[in-house]
Structure prediction request, 67 residues.
Amino acid sequence: MEQKSYWDEIGGELGGAIPIDFDNPSIKIALQKLEKLEQNRPWTYPESATWESESIKVLESINKLIQ
Prediction:
């Protein structure tokens, strides 16, 4: 997930994303963040993190692209 993006904001809220600076990537930092994430990962997720809630947005976006 790219830093400073919509998904960075959502991932930060949910605690389930690892932001990566694609202009200056660091595998060491990404692995450290992954390890920390695995230690603190929640076992349940809010509704906003489910396919059921996001599928409508995805399908609306696809529909706009093909019209």
Summary: DSSP finds three helices and no strands in the chain.
